[in-house]
Amino acid sequence: MKLYWFAIFFLFLLWITASNIYLEPVWWSILSPDRSTHTSLFEQISFVKVILFWIVFLTLKYALQKMNKSV
Fold this sequence. Notes:
Order of helices and strands: HHH
Number of strands: 0
């Protein structure tokens, strides 16, 4: 499971990095569309997207654990 959490952390960092690269907001960006140069990164992050991200990956973790126990 340590590899799973490393992969999730890596994807999350990749998501933040890709969101910073594109100046115009896109639907998959973790940053809110109304960001400005004077707003800190923490305030720009869309918590709804982060929560949805974690729900999906915690569900995958649960499914993987169930599959490993049945094998």
